[in-house]
Amino acid sequence: MSTSLESLLSVVRGSSRVLILPHNNPDPDAIASSVALDYLLEQQLGVTTNIAYKGIIGRSENRALVRYLQHPLKKFSKASLRGNPLVALIDTQPGAGNNALDPKTPVHVVFDHHPHPPAANAQAALFSDVRPHLGATATILTEYLQATGAPLPTVIATALFYGIKTDTLGLLRGATEADVEAYLYLQPYVETAALIDIEHAQVPLAYFRQLDITIQSARVYHDVVIASIGPLAYPDLVGEMADTLLRLEGMRWSICMGQYQDTLLLSVRTHDRLRDAGFLVRSVVGSDGTAGGHGMFAGGQIVLGNRDAPHLSRELTQRMLKYLAISPYMSGTPIVPDPAVLQTLEI
Ligand SMILES: [Mn+2]
Q1: N or C: which end of the chain has fewer CB within 10 A?
Q2: What is the pTM (predicted TM-score) of this model?
Q3: Helix (H) or strand (E) run with residue 300 in it
Q4: How far is the CA of 317 from the centre of ligand 1 (A)?
């Protein structure tokens, strides 16, 4: 048994309440890693845990994943913290700004692969395994499950495999040797038919409506495409649209902004291996909100308060253009040059 597995187990051993918290609006990496930790603690220590999440599981593929896992995540509420459970943060860290905890709530266990946020203190947790160079948190949990020597259930393997696959774009984005090893270890256990159903989940009409708005509002500034896409049907859409826009020929950066409830969300993608999307978001969002991310993809959120979302989006657009050394006064070129459509748009 590896020493890190032993120290994890020694921190959790004897706890009657454990709360596993993935980041808000959890993605497949966060969902799979949470379920894997839940399984590991049950299997090794007989400890039952609760997994809670804040926000929405919106993306159709992610909804299909939780259906396949038989809905192991419950909505986070004040009751989730009742009885002072031992808290494990997954794919996020204390102070990262994208989890349900207020910064004063003690955290006992942290598994993450994001760089340490400036205000974070993952070290304050009794146990933390944060490896910012890795492509996925699911890689870390795969190693722990492997270290137990116990058989790996198909559903857990399928979820972890999908977590690594999505976070690394099929090992093409930010994957390290450890990610490749975990991926290949999991592969023989994967339930292929289930994975196909998850990856090809159908999308609601809201997706196509948002896609239409994205295409109409997108503006190109040299090799940067920026779209401010208004109210979002669910938070993940801002990232899905940024992914889509980056496919436009000649683009090095894609940036998408949209509003969900009282928060302006920002997603950044880049092909530029010499630049870092996380730096861009952190510098543009500054002290107005929170930001995080890796080399090729990053995101941020700003609580609107009494600020106006379109106005804030325009301001952020200017900051991003400046950061990318493009004149903030340059007017962008639409990608749909239809004057009738454009007249109706307020950019
Ligand atoms: Mn992740």
Answers
A1: N
A2: 0.86
A3: strand 297-303
A4: 26
Radius of gyration of the chain (CA): 20
Cα 300 to ligand 1 centre (Å): 15
Going from the Cα of 228 to the center of ligand 1, the distance in angstroms, rounded, reads: 25
How do the domains of the chain map onto residue ranges? 3-199, 205-343
Query: How far is ligand 1, taken at its centre, from the CA of residue 165, in Å?
Result: 10
Q: What is the pLDDT along the chain (347 residues), one digit of tens a residue?
A: 678 999 999 999 999 999 999 999 999 999 999 999 999 999 999 999 999 999 999 999 999 999 999 999 999 999 999 999 999 999 999 988 889 998 889 999 999 998 877 666 656 789 999 999 999 999 999 999 999 999 999 999 999 999 999 999 899 888 999 999 999 999 999 999 999 999 999 999 999 999 999 999 999 999 999 999 999 999 999 999 999 999 999 999 999 999 999 999 999 999 988 888 999 999 999 999 988 877 788 999 999 999 999 999 999 999 999 999 999 888 899 998 665 655 665 55
Distance, CA of 125 to CA of 339 (rounded, Å): 56
Nearest to 22 by CA among 86, 81, 139, 110: 110
CATH topology of domain 3-199: inorganic pyrophosphatase (n-terminal core) (3.90.1640)
- 291: helix, coil or strand? strand
Q: How far apart are CA 304 and CA 288, in angstroms?
A: 9
Q: How far is the CA of 52 from the centre of ligand 1 (A)?
A: 17
How far does the centroid of ligand 1 lie from the alpha carbon of residue 311, in Å?
Answer: 31
Tell me, in angstroms, the distance from the centre of ligand 1 to residue 101's CA: 18
Determine the distance separating the centroid of ligand 1 and the alpha carbon of 20, expressed in angstroms.
Answer: 15
Distance 331 CA to ligand 1 centre (A): 35
**CA–CA gap between residue 21 and residue 124 (Å, rounded):** 17
Tokens for 147?
């270290």
Strands, sheet with 109-112, edge to edge from the N-terminal-most edge strand: 73-75, 49-53, 18-22, 86-90, 109-112, 127-130
Do the Cβ atoms of 51 and 34 come closer than 8 Å?
yes
Q: Under CATH, what is the fold of the domain 205-343?
A: Diaminopimelate Epimerase; Chain A, domain 1 (3.10.310)
